[in-house]
Amino acid sequence: MTTPVHARPIRERIDWLMELSRAHSASFCSPENHLARQRYLAEHNTQIIAMKCMDGRIHLPYVTQTPLGVIHPFRNLGGIFELGWPYLGDMLADTVQEAVSQGRRVLVIITYHYSKGARERGCAGFDCDRQAAMNHAFQIKSQMEKLFGTGHQTVYPLVCGFETDEDALVLHGSPEQILDLSSVPISRLEDMPAEIAALCPDMPGPVRRDLLPLVRGNIRHVAEIRHSDRELNIEHREWVICLGRGFDFLHAPNVALIIGPYSPDLSHPIRQAAGIIKSNMDNGRIPEDGFLLLSSAPYQEPGTQKARAALKSDFLSDFAAGVIRDDYPELARRMIIRSAILHWPERKLEVRGV
């Protein structure tokens, strides 16, 4: 029997992770996926942004049957965001401005996640409290409206629950008014335009048109999940702390704790993540031979951009390592540090100093 990844020696786990990254880049750059992405974007020109938790189960392209690279992710531990954070606010505003300058509308999917089968499979960032996670998502929506307006004709913020047992999306018109896609049979796919219009009457027609493929894809995906026999991955076995951006390849459950570089106080989520890793070791969920601290920063072009990404990534790894050494000195002795940069057009991770 093959040894599960989480139980292998740390060097083998790191090799597995790097292969996962290489496979993701190869898939993203394959002619078939490249053409599918180009065709999709030509037919559906709404810019789709997703704000989501670092949990590997929250894989929107997979659960909506959408080509890789169509949905632009913002990932952070617990799905916790504050648009007042200077870096996050600037990045979001720049992403929206770029889309608008191309004549595109923007759909921002603000996710929270939970399990209908067991509370403890919910979001650890909110102590598995579905209501608290949902409330935070609506707070982000309110901040979006302060930033981009309440008319929703250019930027449409949509709160969306993610039920992880069946990968089902729950679309919110309001906290109480929902469209739970797990309850929609495939026979009703053609009814979805009217359902979405009733749920979100202020959603512009072009945005509704471009949301529709995700909705129908998720309904089909849930039907397939119900005919499969998959493990629900109840137990946390994370052995990687990721800091920065460029971790789209990491959609394997219970492997990594991803911290976006958005909060002005990165030390707090780093301590949280280190505490989880320590608990996993102390309770025998992962071997005690080591864990990986992986930083990453993306770049578009060689030259100054690439050099700047390297400086960012090195800073992030040095900063995180310092926090962990100060707060968890025993754990820090088992820390393996890798700094990486990501060539964004190819989603290619380049690990430095190995």
Protein described:
By secondary structure, the chain is of the alpha/beta class. Helices cover 41% and strands 20% of the residues. The protein contains ten helices and eleven strands. The protein has helices at residues 10-29, 31-43, 60-64, 86-101, 130-148, 192-199, 205-225, 267-282, 304-327, 329-332; strands at 47-53, 71-76, 106-114, 155-163, 168-172, 178-180, 240-244, 256-259, 291-299, 335-343, 348-352. Strand 4 (155-163) and strand 5 (168-172) form a beta hairpin. The two termini are 31 Å apart. The model has no long low-confidence stretch (mean pLDDT 91).
List keywords for this structure.
5-stranded mixed sheet, alpha/beta, 60s Ribosomal Protein L30, Chain: A, 2 domains, 6-stranded mixed sheet, Beta-carbonic Anhydrase, Chain A, single chain, 354 residues, 10 helices, 20% strand, 41% helix
Would you report the number of β strands?
11
Helicity, as a percent range = 40-55%
Mean pLDDT: 91
The whole-angstrom Rg is 20 Å
Low-confidence stretches: none
CATH architecture of the largest domain, by name, is 3-Layer(aba) Sandwich
In short:
It comes from Marinobacter guineae. The protein has helices at 10-29, 31-43, 60-64, 86-101, 130-148, 192-199, 205-225, 267-282, 304-327, 329-332; strands at 47-53, 71-76, 106-114, 155-163, 168-172, 178-180, 240-244, 256-259, 291-299, 335-343, 348-352.
